[in-house]
Specification:
Elements: E1 6-10, H1 17-28, E2 37-40, H2 47-50, E3 55-60, E4 63-77, E5 83-89, E6 94-100, E7 107-110, H3 131-139
Parallel strand pairs: 1-3
Antiparallel strand pairs: 1-7, 2-5, 3-4, 4-5, 4-6
Length: 143
């Protein structure tokens, strides 16, 4: 049994992995210590498993496309006084093999055995499989 678990999250409004990286870089410059975190309302119940090697897998335009290692979970309070979870992320965004995902709200847990593989370093600039082909392959169980 795996000692860690991942999270999966939609990157709403993001068109590409490069755009995700640019947005996080811009946002990190506005944060006091410069360490980017993703803010969410719900605190994961499986915190110990998440910070024991988990990553957040980003869904961009209906496909898992990248991941980032989760460093820790920080307590954050908004101007409304409500407690939120700041998912502190490693700045390195790692492109993954694409995997189709239907839209969902919030974040979900993702078992390590269900997570797509990282793209080899030299392949990160390659174009993804066309969405129609990817869907057809997923329908027959190839992807």
């Amino acid at each position: 049994m795996a000692s860690h678990i991942h999270l999966i999250k939609l990157s709403v409004g993001t068109e590409s992995v490069d755009q995700l990286i640019d947005w996080q870089l811009h946002r990190s410059k506005q944060i006091e210590n410069g360490q980017y975190y993703h803010l969410t309302r719900m605190w994961p119940k499986r915190e110990a498993e998440i910070i024991n090697g988990g990553s957040i897998y980003w869904v961009i335009k209906g496909e898992i496309s990248a991941r980032q290692r989760i460093i820790r979970l920080d307590e954050k309070f908004g101007q409304d006084g409500i407690r939120r979870c700041g998912i502190v992320l490693d700045p390195e965004v790692i492109p993954t093999v694409t995997a189709l995902r239907r839209p969902f709200q919030g974040w979900r847990y993702l078992k390590p055995e269900d997570a797509p593989a990282d793209l080899p370093k030299g392949r990160s600039g390659e174009e993804a499989i066309p969405a129609e082909l990817s869907r057809a392959l997923a329908d027959i169980g190839v992807l």
